[in-house]
Automatic annotation (TrEMBL):
Keyword Glycosyltransferase: no
SUPFAM superfamilies: NAD(P)-linked oxidoreductase
Entry's family note: Belongs to the aldo/keto reductase family.
Site-annotated residues for Lowers pKa of active site Tyr: K73
InterPro entries on file: AKR, Aldo/ket_reductase_CS, NAD(P)_OxRdtase_dom_sf, NADP_OxRdtase_dom
Keywords: NADP, Oxidoreductase
Organism of derivation: Arthrobacter crusticola
Protein name: Aldo/keto reductase
Catalytic residues, chain numbering: Y48 (proton donor)
Domain NADP-dependent oxidoreductase: 21-257
Residues the record lists as binding substrate: H106
Amino acid sequence: MQTVTLNNGVEVPILGFGVYQIPEDQTEKAVADALAVGYRLIDTAAAYGNEAAVGRALAGSGIPREELFVTTKLWVQDAGEQHTVEAFSKSLERLGLDYVDLYLIHQPYGDYYSEWRAMQGLYREGRVRAIGVSNFHSDRLIDLITNNEVTPAVNQIETHPFYQRTEYQRLMTEHRVQLMSWGPFAEGRNGLFTHPALTAVAEAHGVSVAQVVLRWLIQRDVVVIPKSVNPDRIAQNFDVFGFTLTEDEIAHIAALDTGASVFFDHRDPGMTVRLGSVRVS
C-alpha cells in the first residue's frame, strides 16, 4: 500500500475506509470486509455512533495492531481541556484500543483552542500518534498553526471533482499539513457516476468512475477514505493502483471544479449554530 508521511514522521496509508453514515448494525461487517480486502486505514468518529462496531471488527480481524491505522474524531465539546480528555477516553474505550493513530477536531466550532491544547497533551503522552483537524478553512487553520506548538498533521475536508481544493492544498503543503478527502464521490451529486468527462476516462482504462476519482485523488497525494457497505464495491475501490491517469485526463477532471461545496458551507452562520449545538455522549 502506498503511504504518505505526516509532518511528525508517522506514515499513513493513502487509501483507507470510512464509515460515515454506515449504521452501527452494518459497520462491523463492512469494516471486516474492508480489512479482508487489504484496507488498513479505518476512519470513524464519535459523532458517527459506530466506534464500538469498528472496534469489534478490528479485534476480530486478527491483524496486528501495529499494521492498522485508526482515525477517530472529537465532536464539539463544552469549554475546558478536561472535556476533551474525557471524550477521548470514551472513544478509546468504545474502540477497544490503547491508542489511536490519528485524532481530529471534527468541526471548527466551540472552544477548539482548549480542545487543541488537550490534544497536544494526549499526543505528548503517546496516547495519539498524530493529531489534526477536520473541516477547517484556511484562516482558522493558519490561526491554529500560528498560535500553537503542534501543527496539525492532517486537515480532513470535502474534496472531490466538483470541489477540488487545489489552491488550499498548496497552502496546506506549504505548512506541512496533509489533505485528507472526505466525500470523494460527492455522494453522487451533480451526476458524478454518470458524468461524461469521468465516464470517458473510466472507459479508457476499463475501470469504474469511482476508481477514476480515487486514482485522481491519489495522484494528487491526497489521502482518501471512501465508504461502502457493498463487498464488491469495497474491493473495487481498493483496486486503484493498476492504472495511471494521463496529464490530459487530469486536465479534463480539473475542468469540473466549481470551487464550491455540494453540501454546505462551514462558514454559514446557520450551520455554525446547527452543528455547534449538537452534543455527542
